[in-house]
Amino acid sequence: MHDKQDESLVVLIEEFLTARATRKPSPHTLAAYRRDLLAVAALIAEDATTPLPLPALSIIELSPRVMRAAFARFAAPRAPASVHRAWSTWNSFFTFLVADGIVAGNPMPAVGRPRALLPQPKPLRGADTPEVLLASAARNEGRQRDPWPERDVAVLAVALCAGLRLSELLALRVGSLGGRSGERRIEVLGKGGRPRVVPIEADLDRVLRDYLDSRVRRFGSRSVRPDSALLVDRRGEPLRRGGLQYLVESCFRRAGIGDRVPRGARLHALRHTFATRLAEDGASAAEIMRLLGHASLASSQTYIEVTAGQQRDAVRANRTNRALAGLGAVGRVR
After folding, report:
1. Domain match, 90 and 58 both
2. Rounded CA gap, 13 and 43, in Å?
3. Which burial class, exposed, middle or buried, applies to 251 when counting CB atoms under 10 A from its CB (0-12, 13-18, 19+)?
4. Are 200 and 185 a contacting pair, CB within 8 Å?
5. Which CATH number belongs to the domain containing residue 213 in this structure?
6. How many domains would you assign to the chain?
7. Whole-angstrom Cα distance, residue 214 to residue 260?
8. Domain span at residue 264?
9. Residues with catalytic annotation?
């Protein structure tokens, strides 16, 4: 057995996170790994026969019985999806330790975990909401301190017409746009470092060209070198997470559609709208999976299932169907 088996659990957690970083997860994902590992570790330290400070906790103390007790406490105030995510993180952590020869086996199969429910899509509500949002962003409103409608429309259009995640939008370079006329595309670095190519149509291509032309007027031709960030702020600096979220929120406010944006979705609602409209227009789960960069076909299938449910609700609400209900048994002698 590896001589690190008495090493601090906190140290081993950091080694695991360093190893995971080579897979290029988003900073948000890496932070979630750390949060889940340390939260359960803190409960284990508290439950020790003699309570320990967390840095003093050793890996050899993590038996199946200890892990079951800690996860029971961890699960009590949390949603099943959060518990499932933490279980998966700890399972990956122990798999790493086994591979490195630090522990003999993985205790997590002996720890129960709730079934993970796939999150339901949260597209923008209202049949015309995307169009209202884009039209509002395209207006050069005087009340803005430094209006830049070309940039605002480009951000919204890429999210709505290509379905990119926030981290994927931030990672785009000017050189990510490629292909000849009629075959234009965006090269995307997706979740987990998985690349994919999303085709873009002529109208989105025109929006992006207009935006880049406006950027040259503002900051000069050097600002659109292929290795430059595609999305920038009003000073020409690459947009960051908070700045992108604020930009989209301000577009929602200016369009007056705040009540049509699902709670907790915000920018992600634009991606969900893209996928939902694909399903409504007949795209298969496999096509949605490729375009959105899902790792699982099941994630893509949820858009089709939601769309099918919406179609049934629409049929159920049809006035003619309600009229049939009032007919009673047709042809029955009364």
Report:
1. yes
2. 15
3. buried
4. yes
5. 1.10.443.10
6. 2
7. 30
8. 129-317
9. 165, 191, 268, 271, 294, 303
**Residue 312: pLDDT band with limits 50, 70, 90:** very low
Give pLDDT, residue 318: 46
Same domain? For 190 and 313 the reply is: yes
Same domain, 69 and 178: no
pLDDT digits (tens, 9 = 90+) for 10-62: 999 999 999 998 887 778 888 999 999 999 999 999 887 777 788 888 998 89
CATH number at residue 37: 1.10.150.130
Query: CB atoms < 10 A from the CB of 54, how many?
Result: 14
d(CA 318, CA 320) in angstroms, rounded, equals 5
Q: Which residues of 173-198 are buried (b: 16+ CB within 10 A; e: fewer)?
A: bbebbeeeeeebbbebbbbeeeebeb
Give the tokens for residue 50: 């003699």
Q: Are 173 and 228 in contact (CB under 8 A)?
A: yes
pLDDT over 70, % of the chain:
84
Q: Which two tokens stand for residue 21?
A: 């970083």
Cα(25)–Cα(21) distance, rounded to whole angstroms? Answer: 6
- Placement of tokens 């340390």 in the chain: 38
Claim to verify: residue 211 and residue 297 sit in the same structural domain: yes
Residues 6+ apart with CB under 8 A from 320: none
pLDDT of residue 254: 92
